[in-house]
Design brief:
The structure holds two protein chains of two kinds.
Chain A: H1 5-27, H2 34-38, H3 45-50, H4 61-91, H5 101-106, H6 108-121, H7 137-156, H8 158-162
Helix pairs in contact in A: 1-4, 1-7, 4-6
Chain B: H1 3-7, E1 10-11, H2 13-18, E2 23-25, E3 28-31, H3 35-46, E4 54-58, H4 65-73, H5 99-107, H6 111-118, H7 130-143, E5 150-152, E6 155-161, E7 166-171, E8 180-185, E9 187-190, E10 196-197, H8 201-209, E11 216-218, H9 224-233, E12 235-240, H10 244-260, E13 264-270, E14 278-279, E15 287-288, E16 290-291, E17 294-295, H11 309-315, H12 319-329, H13 338-350, E18 353-365, E19 371-377, E20 383-388, E21 390-393, E22 397-398, H14 405-412, E23 441-444, H15 460-476, H16 485-496
Parallel strand pairs in B: 1-6, 2-8, 3-4, 3-9, 4-5, 9-23, 11-21, 12-13, 12-21, 13-18
Antiparallel strand pairs in B: 6-7, 7-8, 10-22, 14-15, 16-17, 18-19, 19-20
The chains are: A mainly alpha, B alpha/beta.
Chain lengths: 177, 502
């Protein structure tokens, strides 16, 4: 795919707002929940759905998990704008000035690492260790890698069907004419 | 056509009646009937235009015919790698599923998919073959009812019609002075492709002096006998040109050399010799790779020339800068295929392949049945000469208004105007300007529109892009519905389900 800078940013925001949000909504109840393990409860989907009892003012465990995954997703969109500027610069070093699908896939690695730390700093996760021992790590990794994969696969096919002008306009979602 | 009629720039219904040319009504006519017409008609059918509203004026029955001829003449054949990628799929507007997915399904292998998702970093580009394209086009043409829209015969004129719209005059058979018929269409599309091959003047001279001599050929002329003779007796062949076609010729010769074990020697002359990577500061920091005479580029243009960053940069330039830049970006080049490079490296090492930066001065038949090629080296200007048995010229095709009588006539009668490089100037909707405001529109797509703001017009990508812009414009004029996301998804579902369009 050969993106313009504006096309890149639009594509990212569009993918996150559509398949990103849908996938996060779908998967959150199924990812291992840190809040549950902290409470010493069995980490099963059933428990999560049953524990819809508010644990704070209007908060259930599922709500807490949703809050975490959606906040991470929101940060992925926000930070993504900066990442896209970096990618755009790198793309300019290629003669074809395009962005092969493999690049779109593997960039999840640096992005996830940065996102993990930024999420901590931004207070998305409850205070605690930030390393591999963090109880949120598993949830974060499963959520981010799957949401990325789904968005990547979506951009390779369904997006072109849904927005037939997208690939002819450097990745722009909003196309005049 | 009689002279009275020919002299008039605008025709009335009575003019045609007087000339004895029957007039048929059709809302939309496309002239050409190759892949350019196909891309547009496919889209129009998908937004619901009935077959009864479309006339395809063409000498070919099937849309893939002319492309198939070009492939076979240029040594690509049905199985050679096309200079295209998986998602530039002319029979599928969305490029999804791409040719790679089709190939994976057919071969029951994940190989093509692994390749297409890791190209061009871990693997070389997945490139479709001619037969994949021919088969797909054939199937899609069948699905959209191509045969019901085709009007066989050559288009000889397009003129404005007094009172609005246009007349397309067509011969109704291939016989000389065959009866003519006129189509009265409000919208006309023209996708003429390449009208001819570019034969070097020295080669034309040689042919004039030695009529009937079949030792010289243009790459697009039939020249199988040259390979047969070389494979049988060996010999030396001169190749000219540094484009994709010359690379295919060299590959074919290397194959023949190995297969026949004959002593086939190749002298290769390149006028615009590329010895090192070329900088393009206007479009970015990267340089185009180049070595041994060739610019190396996967596609005819760098990828971002189609809708990406290079397209954005180039379209923002002034017209004069833009046309120079576009020509440079699309200068002859070949895809960087490792196995091809290895063949030629071996040829250089073993001394049966020699490439020079030079130009032919003259060709002469020698008494002992060979051809003497006098040429001069480009840098030093030192004259040299070689004795060869055959010459294959791969210096390209011609394209321009002047090379096509139909287009020249159109322009002289107030439909369209030349752009700075002598092709058709087109608007943002690939529309041609008429000399005065007119009811109805004429559109063009393909190679004839090169030189405007869109760069890769003559490749699958460009034919689709033009089709989309034209379809959008026709929707604005009320001829058809717009290709919206919803219609796109619906059309895609029908494509996947192989549902015939009504």
């Amino acid at each position: 795919m050969s993106y313009t800078l504006s096309g890149r940013i639009q594509t990212r925001l569009f993918l996150i707002a559509t398949v990103g949000v849908a996938w996060t909504a779908l998967i959150t109840p199924f990812v291992p929940s840190s809040s549950l393990s902290q409470m010493g409860m069995a980490n099963t989907i059933m428990t999560k759905f049953m524990t819809t009892i508010p644990i704070g003012p209007q908060q259930s465990l599922l709500f807490v998990n949703y809050q975490m995954t959606f906040e991470t997703l929101g940060l992925m969109a926000g930070l993504g704008i900066a990442w896209e500027i970096v990618y755009h610069r790198l793309q300019g070093l290629r003669w074809d000035q395009d962005w092969p699908p493999l690049f779109s896939l593997v960039t999840v690695v640096p992005e996830a690492v940065a996102l993990w730390y930024v999420s901590w700093v931004a207070g998305v996760f409850p205070p605690g260790p930030t390393g591999f021992s963090s109880p949120e790590m598993e949830m974060f990794v499963i959520h981010i890698t799957t949401v990325w994969l789904v968005m990547w696969l979506f951009s390779l096919g369904p997006l072109r069907v849904m927005l037939p002008r997208w690939r002819y306009e450097g990745g722009a979602i909003l196309v005049r004419g | 056509m009689n002279e009275n009629l020919e002299a008039k720039k605008v025709w009335s219904d009575e003019d045609l009646l007087d000339a004895g040319i029957p007039v048929r009504e059709i809302p939309f006519a496309t002239i050409g009937g190759g892949l350019g017409s196909f891309a547009l008609v496919d889209l129009l059918r998908m937004v619901g235009v009935p077959t009864s509203d479309i006339a395809i004026v063409s000498v070919d029955r099937d849309p893939q015919n002319s492309f198939q001829r070009l492939c076979s003449a240029s040594q690509l054949g049905a199985d050679g790698p096309l200079r295209s990628d998986s998602s530039s799929r002319i029979d599928n507007f969305w490029g999804f599923p791409g040719y790679a997915l089709g190939a994976a399904w057919k071969r029951k292998s994940l190989g093509p998919l692994a390749r297409v998702t890791t190209e061009p970093i871990l693997a070389e580009y997945f490139t479709p073959t001619g037969s994949q394209v021919f088969d797909g086009v054939k199937r899609e043409a069948d699905r959209i009812g191509w045969a019901g829209m085709i009007q066989p015969g050559k288009a000889v004129a397009v003129r404005r019609r007094g009172g609005g719209g246009f007349f397309v005059i067509q011969e109704t058979s291939s016989a000389p002075s065959s009866p003519l018929v006129a189509w009265h269409a409000r919208y006309v599309h023209i996708a003429p492709g390449y009208p001819g091959v570019n034969i070097a003047p020295d080669l034309l001279d040689f042919r004039a002096i030695n009529p009937g001599d079949n030792r010289t050929a243009h790459s697009y002329e039939s020249h199988e006998h040259i390979y047969d003779s070389l494979a049988g007796r060996g010999g030396t062949v001169l190749i000219r040109g540094s484009g994709d076609t010359s690379a295919h010729l060299l590959h074919r010769l290397c194959i023949e050399r190995v297969r026949s074990d004959s002593d086939i020697r190749i002298v290769h002359l390149i006028r615009d010799f590329v010895a090192q990577p070329t900088p393009f500061p206007e479009v970015g920091r990267a340089r185009r790779p180049g070595r041994n005479g060739y610019s190396l580029q996967q596609f005819v243009f760098p990828r971002a020339a189609g809708g990406g960053e290079i397209a954005r940069i180039v379209s923002s330039k002034e017209e004069s800068v833009r046309s120079t830049l576009m020509a440079a970006l699309g200068a002859p080049s070949k895809p960087p295929i490792r196995s091809w490079e290895a063949e030629l490296d071996r040829g250089r090492r073993e001394g049966w392949y020699a490439v020079h930066h030079g130009e032919v001065d003259s060709l002469e038949a020698t008494p002992d049945g060979r051809i003497r090629v006098d040429w001069h080296a480009h840098d030093a200007g030192t004259p040299s000469s070689d004795l060869v048995d055959f010459i294959i010229d791969a210096t390209g095709v011609v394209c321009g208004i002047e090379a096509d009588p139909l287009l020249a006539d159109m322009v002289s009668c107030g439909i369209g105007s030349p752009n700075p490089i002598g092709r058709l100037a087109v608007g943002p909707a690939f529309d041609l300007a008429t000399s005065e405001p007119w009811d109805g529109r004429v559109y063009a797509s393909g190679a004839i529109t090169f030189g405007g703001t869109v760069i890769p017009v003559a490749v699958f990508w460009g034919l689709h892009y033009a089709a989309l812009r034209i379809c959008d414009d026709l929707a604005r004029q009320g001829f058809c519905r717009r290709f919206t996301p919803w219609r796109s998804m619906l059309a895609w579902a029908k494509w996947v389900g192989r549902v015939r369009l009504p």
